[in-house]
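Give me the fold.
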Amino acid sequence: MSDPRKYSSVIVDGVAQAPSRAMLHAVGFTREDFQKPQIGIASTWSNLTPCNMHINKLAEEAARGADAAGGKAVTFNTITVSDGISMGTPGMRYSLVSREVIADSIETVVGAQGFDGFVAVGGCDKNMPGCAMAIARLDRPAVFVYGGTIQPGAERRDVISVFEAVGGHSAGNVTDAELIAVEETAIPGPGSCGGMYTANTMASAIEALGLSLPNSSAQDAISRTKAEDCFAAGQAVFNLVNAGIKPSDILSLEAFENAITTVIALEGSTNAVLHLLAIAHSAGIPLSLDDFTRIGKRVPVLADMRPAGKYAMSELIAIGGIRPLMKELLSEGLLHGDCLTVTGKTLAQNLADVEPYPDGQEIIRPMDNPIKPDSHLVILRGNLAPEGAVAKITGHEGLTFEGTARVFHGEEAGMAAILEGKVVPGDVVIIRYEGPKGGPGMREMLSPTSAINGRGMSDQVALITDGRFSGGSHGFVIGHVTPEAYDGGPIALVEDGDRISVNAESAEITLHVDDATLAERKSKWSRPAPYATKGILSKYAKLVSSASLGAVTD
């Protein structure tokens, strides 16, 4: 049998590596440990957000699992930032940037230290795709562990309840005291935001990709099952190292199709489009926006989950999580059962013994009674978005919209107009210069969409942006418009009063302005000064690709 220490042996074997061993003795290695496969534990612990405040304990469990299996665990940290805290502020520009920093930092540590495999534990929105991108890039045996979902707050509140209460307060429907009550009771403890928002969406997608152990996506943050999941992940990586199973053995185009299918059935976040494109890029898999359209035509929306629906992730966990849904999708021929996973078994084998949901549950609809017969993630094209845009249209808000443009340069201006009552039914709010380059960082428009919803206009006002949306956004929302305004895309040429129509059934987004007028406007357009001229935001803006390609920097 070949030595499983493919990478660590280069670091610790032989006379010339005595200095390396000397350094490692100081951090707790024994002489026997040098003969064991080294398993890195990438922890996204931080006390700055509830999503990640408990992850140090989960990382410790993963390390115990790796050690118990016969490896030598070494724990290291990477960053996180909180979308929920930075939302609506200049700080949100760093959110998508942090995805790249997380991927880069994990790649850097694992590559430099010569780990033979690793566990990555993530909790907040950008942790998960960042970890998965690093796993794909490094192509060393690895398992992703989701930190788990938060429990609902009082009266089933969550973070979106707070954002929408702000809109209700501006409309005079929520008092000062009521707003404070919502604020103080919506977030009861550790875990990621509790609906089918970006964190739970991406956890489900990564499990469907085969990079997590079965059921890792559907466990409460503070639970015995989540601790057991982490311990098992440490063991699983050791087994993958010995078996020589790498992410490239798992991450096929079919695996990404499984992830897209699962996200659609769960009515997941639009961010899944951006992140799955980025993970596929890291894995060298030719995934495109057209794949979302192709798959979306045959996959129904089945989960009645927040934000558009009723239920929280903890309630889905209580009836069995996503695995019974995946088994149903498999039986309908909508998943590829022969895809390999980190268990060393195929997806079909992992699902073989899964029991169906209990009778009477109302969270997951049957295949013959879907919430929507095809995908809620609609890739739109037209003269306003010739390279594509991503709409989240669940059917609750209708399938078509036509209205009058109200144009804002940046989120702050749009948010102020909404809160001041200047946005009225029939408006199409355009928030531009928020793309990957122009923002930079492609801020999420959760504050504006929540303010619109809080003022009771979710089905009467559309919002279009070259930025993106939180998984908590709902209503008639279209993001990821490409080319972005900063690159002179048509969204930069829209003026107040222009008519805009969106048709989800024909997948069209149309600016009703003739070509000659648009050409005249383009001749007068000039790119605004960059938001940042030094530091990470400037570097990111210079490197980042279009949102239609996943907003990657490599």
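The longest strand covers residues 400-409.
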